[in-house]
Amino acid sequence: MAINFPDSPANSDTFDASGITYIYNSTKGTWSPANGLSSLTSFLVSGNVTATGVVDFGSLSDGTITITGFVDEDNMASDSATLIPTQQSVKAYADTKADLADLEIITNTASGNGSLSYSSSNGSFTFTPADITAPTTVYSLTGTDIDPANGGIQTKTFSADTTFTESLTSGESVVLMLDAGASYTITWPTITCVTSNGNAAPTLTANDTVVLWKVSTTLYGAYVGSYT
Fold first, then answer.
1. Which of 100, 64, 104 lies closest to 82, judged by CA?
2. Which CATH number do you get for residue 191?
3. Pairing mode, if any, of strands 20-25 and 14-17?
4. pLDDT at position 134, please?
5. Which of 104, 101, 215, 207 is nearest to 157 (CA)?
6. What is the CA radius of gyration of the chain?
7. Which of 105, 132, 168, 196 is a Cys-bridge partner for 214, taking CB atoms 3.0 to 4.6 Å apart?
8. Does position 43 have pLDDT exceeding 80, yes or no?
9. What is the pLDDT of residue 178?
10. Cα(20)–Cα(78) distance, rounded to whole angstroms?
């Protein structure tokens, strides 16, 4: 509501409007309620409001959200949409929800386990990936299980009849360099041989190279040739 105050008032002049008596201060050039703001039930302010001391209010609203007060509540149990929490309450509540001191996430891969860990002392995360580097050494196969985890290139010197097993998964392969295969009976796991003559197991000589690989659940093999 706009109030039309008198023009050219003198200091301490009074004016009544809507049941409120206003008094003029010539030093400040302003009209104000004669009994202070306590005499007002409501008023409209344009611009900033600066107050000293305690400001009591019934509610504050921006037209959409209404605030009825402040609350110091560490567990936020009231779950109120009209109360503003203190900074201490927010920190205390957040501290109970953000304890990551024992966090550890394990990522499983075919090549091993990686991990994600959290340091509560400095708030940092550290990720340790799984070792996915294939072995670079040439493995001397003393047993009978063909396992690519031992290396992509493996050698085997026969000293007796041998029955192979295998531990390949889909997408893995092994190069076998075999010595003295012609002197013994060699039995392969179930294998689909890839040769110019169709699916035929290789005939080993003194020194041979065979490549094995797996697609889905099918083990394939190819005879590369002999060497000296």
1. 64
2. 2.60.120
3. antiparallel
4. 57
5. 207
6. 43
7. 168
8. no
9. 96
10. 40
Which pairing describes strands 60-61 and 30-33: parallel, antiparallel, or unpaired? unpaired
- Please state the pTM of the whole predicted model: 0.44
Token readout for 222 is: 């190819």
Tokens of 129: 């990936």
Residue type, 33: P
Q: What is the pLDDT of residues 122-135, one digit of tens each?
A: 767 777 776 666 55
Residue with tokens 């000296």: 228
Which one, of 167, 165, 170, lies nearest residue 151 by Cα?
167
Nearest to 21 by CA among 31, 10, 30: 31
19 and 30 housed in the same domain: yes
Put residue 123 in one of left, alpha, beta given phi > 0 → left and psi -120 to 50 → alpha.
Answer: left
Residues spanned by the domain of 71: 60-98
3-state class of 38 per DSSP? Answer: helix
Phi, psi of 66 (to 5 degrees): -110, 125
How many Å apart are CA 222 and CA 193, to the nearest integer?
A: 6
Q: Are strands 139-140 and 153-157 parallel, antiparallel or unpaired?
A: parallel
CA distance 156 to 11: 114
Neighbours of 157 (CB within 10 A): 13
Do 72 and 117 share a structural domain? no
